[in-house]
Amino acid sequence: MKRNCLILLFAVQLAHAGFGQSAPRADSLQAIQSALRARDFSQALELTHSQLQQFPQDPRLWTFEGLAFAGLKKSSEALTAYDKALTISPSYLPALQGAAQLEFEGGNVHAIPRLERILQQLPNDPTSHAMLAVLAYKQHDCATAVKHFAQSTQLISTQPRALAEYAACLIDLERPSEAIPVFKQIVAHFPGDPRARYDLAVAEVAAHQGKDAVETLQPLLQSKDPDTDVLDLASSAYEDTGDTPKAVELLRHAIVLNPRKAKYYVDFAMLSFNHQSFQVGVDMVNVGLKELPNAASLYIARGILYMQMAEYDKGEADFAMATKIDPSQASGAVAESMALIQQSNLDQALATVESQLSSNPKEAFLYYLKAQILVQKGAEGGSAEFKEAVKAATRATELQSDFVLPRDILGSLYLKSGQPELAIEQCRLALHGNPSDQEALYHLIQALRQSGKGSKAEIAELVQKLADLRQHSREQEASANKYKLYEPDKTKTATPQQ
Fold first, then answer.
1. Crossing angle, helix 364-376 and helix 331-342, to 10 degrees?
2. Which span out of 112-121, 270-279, 449-458 was modeled with the highest average pLDDT?
3. pTM, rounded to two decimals
4. pLDDT value, residue 498
């Protein structure tokens, strides 16, 4: 994103700018411009200094000096010259652009306010938007980065690194559908790069475009020695298409090739969970624990499976072990709380969540769980429990604005308490994050009817959408129940069975 013609561009801008009668003669400015164009920066600097002795308040001359110093790789001196120009004329665009360019190239966040001032004058300048996007990415501010990348799409289309940052932020913001075309541009730049193809498939799987992901991964799967992460991702892609036997085959192959990666066993446990083949999942996790006896994630996965099998003592023991192995993570307590909720042991679940919140006060999911438990305990409108549930769910959305589940709870609570306008707001926010959120859609329909603010046409459209989503869910459930995983022999090898 460097402006290769920056110096010549500035020279042209400066030569045609007027600053009153007490200003250098045109031929003097043209001489400096010619030296800059010829990249004779020392000569340009000498000529500029000569003019500055006569016209020290001319911002063009200070900007010329900045350009000359920049050409001589003297960034500090160049920035000083630009700042002097801006002291004389704070909105002088060439000096702003020169200073922003230098600070951007040095990774200096001071470029940000300069770039923002440039955009006040040139709101559609793609280079300034691109620079702001890159700087925001470096500060892990993906929301800001995406906003500016979107304003510079044509410029960054030739910049693979910027494209990669743009796509990574879209994934981080859980917007995989938007990331897919960006990843496709990267693949077009590097058609033989397996990483580019893998990243595209990750986005496609996240967007539930399993068929496309399978096609994207084919060249990588056809390798003599396929990467195990590719096998794992392809397993998810095939499962998304409904081809469970192929998904199991690929995931087992990944485990055989790399038996010391916990994620593969967890993914197998999830596959078993989805197909209600809980014992098969437990057996595979047991294999993993022999290889990785201190992997907290494996104990959590097995604990969840045990809970589904009504072996509650074993499940709770696994959750406790996960917390013991990694006390800094709330994962074990979260899983335990969810299991306790499933058993309707709500008081103990609430105690567990509140205990974790004392040491993890910024964990959004824990606040969501607290709200969920209070709702299940029967929090009535106006009661202390109701207010506490609203407070907890609201805190969850404050910590994670795109977290849909607590917004579902808020929509329900506001609807029940006769506050349909607030319910409508939360339901719309939830649907913005997840257009397929059936709970938010149902509550939105009820809130619109209750408030009288929804037109018949809008409500009819929402009702039809809800019906379509429910039908799709039934089809997915039928597909998941189509296969069970079983063990054909004592080797405990998981195999698909229709």
1. 10
2. 112-121
3. 0.71
4. 40
Helix (H) or strand (E) run with residue 496 in it = strand 495-497
Burial (0-12, 13-18, 19+ Cβ within 10 Å), 380: exposed
C-alpha to C-alpha distance for 85 and 69, rounded to whole angstroms: 14
Using alpha carbons, select from 413, 407, 427 the residue that is nearest to residue 376.
413
Residue-wise DSSP of 417-458: TT-HHHHHHHHHHHHHH-TT-HHHHHHHHHHHHHHT-S-HHH
Backbone angles phi, psi at 89, to 5 degrees: -135, 90
Query: Side chain identity at 329, as an amino acid letter?
Result: Q
Q: Which of 94, 83, 149, 88 is nearest to 118 (CA)?
A: 94
Distance between CA 441 and CA 458 in Å, rounded?
A: 12
Residues 77, 57 contacting (CB under 8 angstroms): no
> Which whole number is the average pLDDT over 83-94?
94
Token pair listed for 449? 């009817």
Cβ atoms of 244 and 253 closer than 8 Å: no
- Location of structure tokens 């197909």: 275
- 491 pLDDT band, cuts 50/70/90, is very low
Question: CA angle, corner 389, sides to 384 and 394, nearest 5?
Answer: 130
Report which DSSP code applies to 485. Answer: E
Which helix (H) or strand (E) element contains residue 495? strand 495-497
Residue 422 CB neighbour total at 10 angstroms = 17
